[in-house]
What does this fold into?
Amino acid sequence: MAILVIAEHDNAVLKGSTLNAVTAASQMGDDIHMLVAGSGAQAVADAAAKVSGVAKVLLADAAAYEHQLAENVSLLVAELGKDYSHVVAPATTNGKNTLPRVAALLDVAQVSDIIRVESADTFVRPIYAGNAIATVQALDAIKVITVRTTGFDAAAAEGGSATVEAVAGSHDAAISAFVGEEVAVSDRPELTAADVIVSGGRGMGNGENFVLLENVADKLGAAVGASRAAVDAGFVPNDMQVGQTGKIVAPDLYIAVGISGAIQHLAGMKDSKVIVAINKDEEAPIFQVADYGLVADLFEVMPQLEAQL
Amino acid sequence: MKVLVTVKRVIDYNVKVRVKSDNTDVDLANVKMAINPFCEIAVEEAVRLKEAGTATEIVAVSMGPKAAQEQLRTALALGADRAIHVETDEALESLTVAKMLAKIVDEEKPDLIVMGKQAIDSDNNQTGQMLAALSGMPQGTFASELKIEEGKALVTREVDGGLQTVALNMPAIVTTDLRLNEPRYASLPNIMKAKRKPLETKTPADLGVEVSARTKLLKVEPPAERSAGIKVDSVEQLVEKLKNEAKVI
Ligand SMILES: Cc1cc2nc3c(=O)[nH]c(=O)nc-3n(C[C@H](O)[C@H](O)[C@H](O)COP(=O)(O)OP(=O)(O)OC[C@H]3O[C@@H](n4cnc5c(N)ncnc54)[C@H](O)[C@@H]3O)c2cc1C
Ligand SMILES: Nc1ncnc2c1ncn2[C@@H]1O[C@H](COP(=O)(O)O)[C@@H](O)[C@H]1O
It folds into this structure.
């Protein structure tokens, strides 16, 4: 039986996290179909058809799917999912919102946030904020899986030539409605896709001081992240939070500035290739995971760093 | 309006868990346990709705071993009116919890159910969405703001790109994110009062749900340790190392 991968998109662009999910799916079996559920999403379906390894694209285009409301999309995915061995989505907020609903409708378990595929039914996932790594076998006939994107390379966005098939009809549960959104706009790379991330914590003192990080980030083409404390204090918006319950990142270089290194923060960044910590407290736990630690006042050294890059 | 809140007994968030030497699971012997932090936020939100006059009754539910009653007592001390404990020593998967909650929802008929977005032990992030599916209810997951207006739940959600607001028919399920509120501490008089609040005990069999395992835990291992690196003395040295040793800039 084939594997159904749920595309992450905004009705215009196929998001990169989908490509990581395709790679994970390809390790579970080799007949991969991709579902694009949206409204006016033909361009996404066309992009999906080009993804290497995808055999067929299902395009469910209906007003009810415009905002990816889980109440509607889950009905669609559960109906289609019956005919698949696996239903796979990236562990984005969308995937996390919709897929457990699908699993319950199919009366099967979900395995969340996998970082490795051992076999078609056995998966590896972090638990307890990444302080333990569990190997889990899914016993149900249909495996419902969300994929931690940092665990898998992206499949090639070009090279495939899948057919695009329209899915007729539309599921509208009519119990929820989209009201509005506040989308963060930034010229910087997305946190989960960036090669370099500069993150600030409570030590930044206030939101204005984040300009010290932005200046360094500009020099490095980096994304800017934050700890929970910095978000809670209102320095920066919630979509910048890195950690167990925020975004999981694994860039080539992660620079933690004024961040103590609580386990919940480490859970979101400790798979980065190189970690730099800048903190004035030499006992800060962040130094235990840092490849390069600089014990210093960030207000002194960040301008120096900017100047030397 | 009646509000149901769920509280899970989990390892205290400050504790760094260790894996058992035989790699069968993590070691929870003599480890400090607490209410899952997201469930604390759920209880707080319900209490604020009651204080605002929007909610009239708060029922707290927990499933798990006898000791989970400690967390229910905490919820009662924080302001829940009564508690339901579904007692079992078996390991509970999210789907099983959702099925049992669906039965309790059938009996209790709450107008609003507030749950944590994620249990910090399993890190599943599933149960609220599953209960919503089983009960045919809408869901406002990862909530940073909740307003009840004209019979609808207006939920602002923390999503990858920023914030999204949805309007949900009621009854509805809301799962909490960190910014929804800052939970209070239970006062000593309220802890004393909580001892006399009603706490009902049930079993999975009472609810007609069989505790079955749909997944098998094959092994649990410690994560790859990162070894601490070196301290540099200056920004010059840092930049030099990043360029020539790590070769990342
Ligand atoms: C359920 C739950 C989920 C959580 N999820 C997350 C999550 O996803 N992500 C996350 O990050 N946290 C999360 N946390 C919070 C986490 O436990 C910590 O509270 C948080 O990470 C601390 O943020 P911080 O390091 O910025 O602040 P602090 O711990 O206050 O550290 C600030 C650091 O800045 C340093 N500093 C101060 N001034 C200067 C200066 N001038 N120059 C240099 N250094 C300076 C200090 O020495 C200190 O080490 C979660 C907590 C819970 C309970
Ligand atoms: N055994 C349980 N008892 C009570 N509530 C639970 C239990 N398991 C999960 N929940 C609720 O569901 C939320 C999400 O849990 P999970 O899906 O396991 O990450 C938790 O924050 C709790 O509010």
